[in-house]
Here is the input.
Amino acid sequence: AQSVTQLGSHVSVSEGALVLLRCNYSSSVPPYLFWYVQYPNQGLQLLLKYTSAATLVKGINGFEAEFKKSETSFHLTKPSAHMSDAAEYFCAVSESGGYQKVTFGTGTKLQVIP
Amino acid sequence: DGGITQSPKYLFRKEGQNVTLSCEQNLNHDAMYWYRQDPGQGLRLIYYSQIVNDFQKGDIAEGYSVSREKKESFPLTVTSAQKNPTAFYLCASSSPGYGYTFGSGTRLTVV
Here is the structure.
């Protein structure tokens, strides 16, 4: 069965500092992995996805994530945090390309301190 | 622009009442999903449908019902059997090779 673990339900960074949000996955087959962002009272927006091509995936708003099979990780990073990055971030895994069920992590709320 | 429309944005339910949440998409996606979101619990799958006139239970289907009579529409009914319905409900759709596209959600509150 597929599963996702996000380490840290809340992360605080200073504006301009590195953002690192951690995600570890479990999957019985090569996975598809996703990061989504959610602003208050809104739906989720796709930031980036890994689909077995390049292990370093670039997404929107300057975010990127690296797939590390040996560590079963898919951590999300951004070199310099902006106030507008404050939101909740969800890591997700699918064993079927996202066409069927996707399993979401419990989310990490990112606070950006001015 | 293509997307998913959920309505209403806010909904209030009295004890013992059934309510229906609307979800419409114009993305021509085959698959549609309903998730429930509670603080600190992430998203939990209620029901999903991969084709018209067919749907499957997710992890927390008890107290909910759905229909899929049209490709574009996947309404969710929260029945009186759902004892703790207060939550944020998200509808999504997908097609092969893509991640999910989400609607903007419906916040349901029991009064």
